[in-house]
């Protein structure tokens, strides 16, 4: 069906030629036409429905069907000048923003052309099946054909099978940027979009007020005791590694506008993937799986040391991390779990023998980039690959089954979508799925932050507590 989608796409090429030049330009807050987007302005029409920087200026557009996939989706991607989208995150409106950003590139979106909610152990398979069905019925006009163009969905999946509440969102508008190219995709359900769209500046988000941060499910002492329990069980031979997480609960005086922390995270952690899907936001350094045109890559992290702010000292600490047998052991479990899960899908793979040290502003990690050539891209989507990899030993443990049972038994909280796959996928099944780390879930004026640590036989509860504190820093700072 994904091939059929491409064929329709090809057939639409001639159509597109009649739509005018694809030379969108910066509009600096003025209501002006975005060339290349279908449908001319009707005489006397005016700006009506503001949806972020793209506003409808004519009526008669088909209404979207956020409840599901009853009507076929129609996606149209148009190239615009890269100067129109210098800071993607600044385009986001307050209502319903989604984001996936790194080093200024990525995709952002808003509105809901469709949404799929799944739960339980079948959450990935059901979401993937619904997406395949939507794609199969969709009409896609995409002359740009870069990763992130055409019909795309954003997704965020629960860590655990129970309750497992997960979501796929198909926005009404997606704006993307990759190096010096940029594009706008409009997605409607129920027919061709005959509206004209204009780029407008989004209002900046308000600064959070009256931030109060409290402990979450467990106090620091209680959590350290749980870590001690895990170390005892590992020493007794029950399992080799388990990742234990804790939470903090922040409240703000007014409901949080998630665009505030998103802007902060994107600028402070440019090498991480800054994301937001349906209330879950963060800046993760860990790529569970990216599939692009037959190539698959994964950035595996495990093994952490805190930065001090003194560059010379941090370099010495990085060398210590690279030699730490406790951290190398923790890392090895994580790499093996990813390589083993990817192997059945790859005709060749490259798994480096030793990790490098990834420097982030708050911590340093042992990191390994695994790469492979997939042989089953026509049959297996990037989301299915993410499902096969989840939970890797970077967020679950080794052996996986025992670790997941122990997490449910002793961690003392529901992780929700923290440490689950988060990212996006296109109509061909290519996409990027990160692990939702350094993240938080926002619900009105309440923000629940998460951080976890890999526990092995040599772990010290006090050190793990300090490491978890360091991992809260990105989101905590972004709320201020
Ligand atoms: C579980 C988290 O980090 C994982 C990723 C990198 C390093 C980790 C560690 O050293 O423990 C964790 O496995 C988290 O940030 O919440």
Automatic annotation (TrEMBL):
Chain positions covered by the region annotation Disordered: 1-28
Keyword Isomerase found: yes
Biased composition (Acidic residues): 10-21
EC number(s) from the headed UniProt entry: 5.4.4.2
Keywords for the protein's UniProt record, in alphabetical order: Isomerase
Keyword Isomerase among record annotations: yes
Family to which this protein belongs: Belongs to the isochorismate synthase family.
NCBIfam families: isochor_syn
Protein name: isochorismate synthase
Organism this protein belongs to: Nocardioides panacisoli
């Amino acid at each position: 069906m994904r091939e059929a989608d491409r064929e329709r796409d090809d057939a639409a090429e001639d159509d597109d030629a009649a739509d005018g030049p694809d030379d969108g330009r910066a509009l600096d807050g003025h209501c002006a036409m975005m060339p290349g987007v279908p449908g001319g302005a009707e005489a006397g029409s005016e700006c009506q429905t503001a949806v972020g920087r793209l506003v409808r200026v004519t009526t008669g557009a088909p209404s979207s069907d956020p409840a599901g996939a009853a009507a076929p989706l129609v996606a149209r991607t148009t190239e615009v000048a890269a100067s129109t989208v210098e800071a993607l995150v600044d385009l986001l409106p307050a209502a319903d923003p989604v984001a996936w950003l790194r080093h200024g590139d990525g995709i952002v979106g808003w509105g809901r052309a469709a949404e799929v909610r799944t739960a339980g152990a079948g959450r990935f398979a059901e979401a993937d099946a619904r997406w395949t069905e939507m794609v199969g019925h969709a009409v896609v006009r995409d002359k740009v054909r870069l990763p992130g163009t055409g019909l795309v969905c954003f997704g965020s999946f629960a860590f655990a099978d129970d309750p497992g509440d997960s979501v796929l969102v198909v926005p009404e508008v997606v704006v993307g940027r990759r190096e010096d190219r940029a594009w706008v995709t409009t997605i409607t359900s129920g027919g061709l979009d005959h509206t004209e769209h204009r780029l407008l500046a989004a209002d900046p988000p308000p600064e959070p007020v009256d931030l109060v941060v409290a402990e979450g499910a467990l106090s620091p002492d209680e959590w350290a005791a749980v870590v001690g329990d895990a170390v005892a069980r590992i020493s007794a031979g029950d399992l080799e590694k388990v990742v234990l997480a804790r939470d903090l609960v922040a409240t703000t005086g007014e409901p949080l506008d998630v665009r505030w922390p998103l802007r902060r995270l994107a600028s402070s952690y440019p090498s991480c993937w800054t994301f937001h899907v349906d209330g879950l936001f963060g800046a993760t350094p860990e790529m569970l799986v990216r599939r692009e045109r037959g190539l698959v890559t994964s950035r595996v992290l495990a093994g952490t040391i805190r930065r001090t702010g003194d560059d010379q000292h941090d370099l010495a600490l990085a060398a210590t991390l690279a030699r730490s047998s406790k951290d190398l052991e923790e890392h090895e479990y994580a790499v093996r779990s990813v390589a083993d899960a990817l192997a059945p899908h790859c005709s060749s793979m490259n798994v480096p023998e030793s990790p490098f040290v990834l420097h982030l502003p708050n911590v340093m990690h042992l990191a390994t980039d695994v790469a492979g050539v997939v042989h089953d891209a026509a049959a297996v989507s990037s989301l299915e690959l993410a499902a096969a990899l989840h939970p890797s030993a970077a967020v679950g443990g080794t052996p996986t089954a025992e670790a997941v049972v122990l997490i449910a038994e002793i961690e003392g909280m529901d992780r929700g979508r923290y440490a689950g796959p988060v990212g996006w996928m296109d109509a061909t099944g290519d996409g990027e799925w990160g692990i939702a780390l350094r993240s938080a879930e926002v619900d009105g004026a309440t923000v629940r932050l998460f951080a976890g640590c890999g526990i092995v036989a040599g772990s010290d509860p006090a050190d793990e507590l300090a490491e978890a504190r360091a991992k809260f820093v990105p989101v905590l700072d972004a709320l201020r």
